[in-house]
Amino acid sequence: MILGIGTDIIEIRRIEQACGKAAFLRRTFTREECRQAKGNASKLAGNFAVKEAVAKVLGTGFRSFMPEHIEVLRDELGKPYVNLYGGARVLADELGITRLLVTISNTKEFCVAFAVGEGADIKYEV
Questions:
Q1: β 110-119/97-106 pair status
Q2: What is the pTM for the complete model shown?
Q3: Separation CA 20–CA 3 (nearest Å)
Q4: Rg (CA), the chain
Q5: Is 1.20.1740.10 the CATH number for 2-119?
Q6: What average pLDDT values come out for the chain (126 residues) when binned by 10 residues?
Q7: What does the domain layout of the chain look like in residue ranges?
Q8: Cβ 92 vs Cβ 84: under 8 Å
Q9: How far apart are CA 37 and CA 64, in angstroms?
């Protein structure tokens, strides 16, 4: 059952400029995200858009957790997936979200991400 959806779009140039500051990188991306991106602004912008989309799935934005608590990685085929930590993990558990599906698309200037949070079917008594 779908428990939440979220989407985000971001200008790659904005993330490229922000990543020029080490503090932004540290508080936004995990070491593994940075390692996988290898400084590629488009990949980092896509990751940031996923973080925003997942925050919308959770329904709170970044209130009870930080962007680094949503880790966006890619498998061996390049498919993005998400690991949750800290407050993001706690909130997902409270909401009953057991699976997050994400996708990223980009043009030369923009990245867009979409996220879906799934959980167990809820049986209602009538």
A1: antiparallel
A2: 0.91
A3: 36
A4: 15
A5: no
A6: 96 94 93 94 96 95 91 96 96 95 97 96 62
A7: 2-119
A8: yes
A9: 26
